[in-house]
Amino acid sequence: MYNTITDLSILSSCGIRGQPSKAPKIRCITRHPPPYSVMKINVDGGASGALGELTGGGVFRDNYGVFRG
């Protein structure tokens, strides 16, 4: 439930009890470089519904973390 203070005030004035959402957990992500002369590929994609639009992309990096495409 993602409510603002205003949303919770409106719910309260109508006699409805709301709960504020908890803050998201923050995680530390560490890059692990591949061995020498090996490329690392990171890809991601998304879709809008079962028959919706699709999108995707990727990043190539060498063992030094230099963008290669």
Verbal overview:
By secondary structure, the protein is an alpha+beta fold. Helix content is 13%, strand content 23%. Strands 1-2 form a two-stranded antiparallel ribbon. Strand 1 and strand 2 (54-61) form a beta hairpin.
Write the layout of secondary structure elements.
Elements: H1 5-13, E1 40-47, E2 54-61
Antiparallel strand pairs: 1-2
Low-confidence sequence ranges: none
Q: Number of DSSP helices?
A: 1
Q: Kindly name the structural category.
A: alpha+beta
Rg on CA atoms, Å: 22 Å
Q: What is the chain-wise order of helices and strands?
A: HEE
Strand composition percent? 15-25%
Major sheet details: 2 strands, antiparallel
Basic shape: elongated
Cross-sheet strand order for the largest sheet: 1-2
Helix content: 10-25%
Strands, count: 2
Give the end-to-end Cα distance, rounded to a whole number of Å: 39 Å
Mean pLDDT: 83
Keywords summarizing the entry:
69 residues; alpha+beta; 1 helix; 13% helix
Quick structural overview:
The chain has 69 residues and is α+β, with helices and mostly antiparallel strands. It is built from one helix and two strands. The mean pLDDT is 83.
